[in-house]
Amino acid sequence: FFFFFFFQAEDGIRDAQESRGLGDVYKRQVQEGAGEDDSAAGDIVYRISYNTRYEANSGSSVASKGDFKIKIWGDGSPSDTGTLFLVTHPGYSCKAAQAAECFADIKGVVKATDSTKCNCDPSKSGYSESAAQWEPLTGRVQHTYVSAPNVGQITKVEVTTTSSDSWVPEFIKVNTNSIETGNGNGIYYMDVNKAINSGATFTATTTATDSNGVQVNMDDKASHRYGIVKCENAVC
Predict the structure, then answer these.
(1) pLDDT higher than threshold 70 for residue 165
(2) What is the dihedral angle through the alpha carbons of 189, 45, 207, 88, rounded to the nearest 10 degrees?
(3) Which of 83, 91, 98, 202 is 20 to 30 A from 74, alpha carbon to alpha carbon?
(4) CA 220/CA 226 separation, integer angstroms
């Protein structure tokens, strides 16, 4: 049973820039510590950050109007989170007005119902792409919080879409540590810098090696583009 929502808070040194894009949206539900659904017991919150590659003009070659999903594997039990909704329209900002209930409160609870007018949520009945007024927001860090099963130390991440409209993130970062205590399974960084679309899935593992057969590691920055790096918050 999964819960997810979008948020704008700063999340580590790499996230110093304000994000107005996907923190401005959608239908999603519960943040860590909300305590309103016992079925989420045993789950953790995956705080996922991403930065669409900067493009000076329209952003059309790096941002996407598609929906993207993520699946995370680990060394625990269960071994994976299942496929989770990650983001819609990455690299864009929705300028349409929305009801206050469409946004997460201090506990991460979105109180929107099916009848709430959330103009930036493509899954809502009556959604209009033109009325949402999506504008490019490349080069900015955006965030998604996903509550899902704790898979332990992350070993693999996969991002998929059914859209032919490519998204080019510079990086994706998954923070599994508790927002309250700072404890958890760590922070995982992926240098992406390649298009993700219906014909090109992004897959990264912690066991990947570089062109010389050396396993990716935090100290070797050149190796980061080959896989997942588990890193310290101060340098991630």
Answers:
(1) yes
(2) -60
(3) 91
(4) 11
How far apart are alpha carbons 190 and 124 in whole angstroms?
31
Task: In whole angstroms, give the CA distance from residue 15 to residue 47.
Answer: 12
d(CA 104, CA 26) in angstroms, rounded, equals 9
Residue given tokens 């107005």 in the structure block: 20
Q: If phi over 0 gives left and psi between -120 and 50 gives alpha, with beta otherwise, what is residue 89?
A: left
Task: Give phi and psi for 132, each to the nearest 5.
Answer: -70, -25
Q: What does the DSSP 8-state code read for residue 56?
A: S
**What residues have CB less than 8 Å from 182, skipping those under 6 apart?**
none
pLDDT per position as a tens digit, 53-71: 999 877 789 999 999 999 9
Runs of H (alpha helix) within the chain: 129-132
| Lowest mean per-residue pLDDT among 28-42, 46-60, 133-147, 196-210 | 28-42
Check if the beta carbon of residue 152 is closer than 8 Å to that of residue 141: no
Nearest by Cα to 26 from 87, 70, 69, 71: 87
Nearest CA to 104 out of 116, 112, 96 is that of 112
Mean pLDDT of 151-167: 97
- What is the distance between the terminal CA atoms of the chain, rounded to a whole angstrom? 29
More confident site: 70 or 37: 70
Gap between the Cα atoms of 92 and 9, Å rounded: 17
